[in-house]
Each structure stands twice: as structure tokens, then as C-alpha cells.
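Archive entry: two folds, one per protein. Generate the first.
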Amino acid sequence: MAYPLRSALFSLDPETAHRATIAALRLWGGFGTPFAGRSGSDASAGVRVAGIDFPNRVGLAAGLDKNAEAIAGLFGLGFGAVEVGTLTPRPQPGNPRPRLFRLVEDEAVINRMGFNNDGIDAALTRIAALKRRAGVLGINVGANKDSTDRVADYAEGVGKAAPHADYITINVSSPNTPGLRDLQSRPALDELLAACDSARGGTPLFLKIAPDLDRAGIDGAVRAAIDNRIDALIVSNTTISRPALRSPLAGEAGGLSGAPLRTLAATKLIEAREASGGALPLISAGGIDGPDEARRRLDAGAVLVQVYSALVYRGPGLAREIVRGLAASR
């Protein structure tokens, strides 16, 4: 589905297009977006999750605004929640380029960015300078690649983010930092979540898991989240698996997102729902590209959905389209 400026953006390499998009959203937000805070539906679109009032059920997943540069502009697109990051205690450049790939034939993206960011302190300075927020702000935190104590990195990130965030997401599911996904297994996950729980004050904590966990892994992550007072589970991050793909770029290393992730993400949502028995709010991400798929995830047990890669192919009107579609399907 074409949208204005798609051809221009697709003429650029993906990372340059990404940076251009952030710059445009930052500029737009700086002038005061004309639609900020308007979800495209009535007040009944909102929902309360983890003690937070979300103005609608559609959030932006982490990864687009890594450095919290364009929050106002992103809220202006109609998202009920914007999640920034992933942010690490110290700045890091990420992995060598090229590290971001459009799989146009599949409406997919592969990335191996590697938590490239300016560091959490720089991002929090930008967040503190915001005059107001038109929705819920999440801050996604991770560990530095060369860290000698990753648990301490996460606890530091949570502690610093807590005064500025409506919620904090603990990201242990990126495939692009070696060894990071090992933290999804118990007892390492219990140690990590306990440290983050101690650091958060009263700020809700969300945990983001990988779609590549098997059923036992899902069960363990859900149990650890419940035992350590996690407020919601995001299911899921990108996958290292490769379903049937048409693009010649399918063999690139990294996490796959977009339309090919749809079936796997939906399956893992159902597994997480069964494992939690309703004791943990679930947020579904992966392959959601319109109101029909968003409705299917909500009907399958999610309380909120997040999108990101579909914006590349469907354009900046996607959030409003989903919010309006969900309102019409009630």
C-alpha cells in the first residue's frame, strides 16, 4: 500500500530513511503537531493497564525512536503509547553497517542494530525537557554489549528511567547483543527482575520476550514475571527464525520483523495467555499491520498492541487507522 513519500524514503538506504523520518517527526513535534492527543476515536477507546490510563490500545514499539528525539511527533501520529529506546547506561555505536534491511517483497525488516544509542542520560535529558505528553511514555532499557555486569546495567537503567517514564520495559529479547537472550531463562531472569524491581520505585515494569522461546521457555518467563511483580508482558520481539521469504535479503543475519512474524507472534501470545492464566496483562507485538490483525490479537488475550515495522510499508496513518478500526469493531 503506497503512501505519500514512500517512494522517496525507499530510494534511500533503510538507516538513512530512518534518520530522515526521525528528523521530520522531531521538527513536526517541535512546532506542535495539530493532532497531538487525538486518537481518532471517542474516549471509550482507552483502557487501564498496570494502573496506567492508555488513551487507546495502539502503542509504538521500541526501536523507532531509540534516543527519545521525536516523542511529540510520534504522539501526533495517534499512538496511545510511545516506547523509546532501547537505552543502555553508556552510549554505544551498535553493530557495523549495513545493519538494517527492507525485505520489500515480504513487507518485512531485518535488523542487527545492536542497541545503538546515545546512552540513557542523553535521552532522559530530552524527555525531561518535554513540555507535555499526549499519551503514555514507555522507556525500554538494556545492557551495554561490553558490560561485565548486565544485571547492574538493567538496574541502573530502571532506576534512572523510573522518574521519567509511565512504564519501563526490560528488554532481554534482542537477538543482536551476544548472550542477551540467555537472561530470559531462570534463574538468571529471576535475579535480573528482582534487581529491577528494587530499582523501580513505583513505576510499572514490563518484560519483553522473544518469539523464539519454546513452550517451556514461555512458561518459565511468565512464572518469573509473576513471581517478581512484573506488571505486563510484551509478546514479542523480533525472531531469528526464517519463515518462507521471497526477498533476496532473507539470509541477512539479525532479527526479522513485519508480516512474516505474524503467525509466530500470535502463537506465542496464545501460549503466554495459557501460561499466565489471566494473571499478567499481555501486550502483543509482531506482524500487526491493520485493525483486523489488531482485533485478532485483542480477541486472543492481549490488552494492548504495538506496531513498528508495518509503519515502513503502511505509512504514518497506521495508528489512527487501527484505532478507528478497533472502535468500529466493538
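Generate the second and append.
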Amino acid sequence: MTERAAPPAPGTQRWVSLMVHDLEASQRFYQALFGWEYQAGPQRLGPYVRALRDGRPVAGLGQMPPGERRLVAWLPYIATQNADATATRIRDCGGTVAVGPLDFSGGGRLAIAADLHGAPFGLWQGGGRGPLPDADGVPVWNELVTAEAWPVSMFYVTALGYEVAPDPSVPEDVDYLLLRLGDHSVAGVRGVGDALPHDRGAHWLPYFSARDPDATAERARKLGAQVQREPENGWLGRTVWLSDPEGAPFAVLRPSRPLRRGEDR
């Protein structure tokens, strides 16, 4: 999943992975959209590639087993110093652990879990990757889309050690909280109430950098993606919400302010 390097700070969210039904088609889509290149990754859980931008790994794409019918969704991986202890804490807080913890190539250890409202996420114990390139198609933010922000935020506080704070740039009538590590904001939690998709439920949404979100949205549309919300200026910056040809939701963003996400340090 990652190169061997100094372990990232616990709670860091800098890696995202996507399990798809047609790996080759998904590679072509994201290559055309973001300019990603690929290298073979660990095959323990099936065919898997690392997506590279300017020669640095930024995301992973994997192939689901034949006949697998689950929804396609991006999965953030959250750094931990002890995957087994964190997995136990997740269960104690009402979450579930579906895979692992298990050893992965390169000396890492991973697990796949879900919060108490069913939103899946990964755990990663191992090396980090250093700074990411300043280019389109690089993950710059993760956001949990859920019914109510406050209750599930307390799960992440207890299970993963985050602090919670409001974002002063967000309108008061928007249910939105920040997950923080010290003075770094690492992710957002957006409560959408009855607008939560009934077919998907609570889920994590990755934001990828785009110097021109409008042009990226038009290119995505031509490549077979769906534009869920037209480009707009929000508190994070110029944003457009999309779903790829297999239905996985994601967003592209030109930030209007620095997003400090608890980088490897």
C-alpha cells in the first residue's frame, strides 16, 4: 500500500483506496481524469495497483472478487501505531471490524472497519510516504457524510483519538464539524439528515485536488461519470461532487485556504 518510511502521525488520513468491479476500466477513467499512472501493488486481497502522480503514490485501486455485489466506494485509511489495539477500541465503541487486522507486504498491518453508523474506513500501521505532489488528482481532504455530525464524531474521538471543533467558515445552519489532531484539521464530518442516500448510507467522501474544477467536471462527464452537484464556491473552495462510472462518489476541489491534514511528521 505504501513505501516504507517513518510512520505517519496516528490519525493521519492521506491514503485512499477503491475496490471496483472492472479494474482496467477504472484505471483508464482515472488516468484520463487525473493523469494517474500505475504500478502493481500487493496482491494479497486480489489484483491491486497503486496510482501515481508525478511518480508518487496517491491512491490505490483494487479488483473485487467475481460475483461481489457490494457498492463501490472510496475508503480512507487512518494511521495507527497499533492496529490490533485500535481495532479492539473500535469494537468497544460500537463499531465493527470486517477485515483483519492482518499483516501486509512491506511490514505493514491493516484492518477494515466501520463506525457505529456503518461508514467503512481502513486502519494502517506502517510507514508513510512523505509529502504529496502539488498536482491535480492528489487527495487533499476527506469528509464523512452521515445523518448527524455530533454523535458519530464522538465515536471517532473515543476510538481514534481525534478532537472535534466547529469550522468558523461554515454557515451556522450547516451541520459540520472538524476532526483535529492538535492544531491540524484532518477531516470533516457533514450531517445531512434525511438527505443521506438510502442506497449507500453513511460514507467517507474523498476530495481530490483540481486547479480547474469546472473543466475537470466536464472531462469527467465525457468519460462516463455523473456530476452530482454542479461546481460551486463553498467554504473549502471551488468544488464539484461526482460519481465515477461504477458509482463511487468523490469530489474535486480547488482549495480557497490551506488544508492541513495532519501530514506525515
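Annotation attached to the second fold: The chain has a mean pLDDT of 91. The CA atoms of residues 114 and 120 lie 4 Å apart.
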